[in-house]
Automatic annotation (TrEMBL):
It comes from hydrothermal vent metagenome. This is Death on curing protein, Doc toxin.
Amino acid sequence: MSDYNIVFSPRAHQRMMEIADYLYQQNLPGSFVLKYLNSIEAWLETLLC
């Protein structure tokens, strides 16, 4: 992880929550959802930094 923080807009935050909710509704383990969302964060850091 970098020293920078990614700050999501309210809409982007809402979309991330919708993705998490969808994954939970698919009966995926919480650990998978967390790893998936962390991978999105890592991708964004690579893209933006």
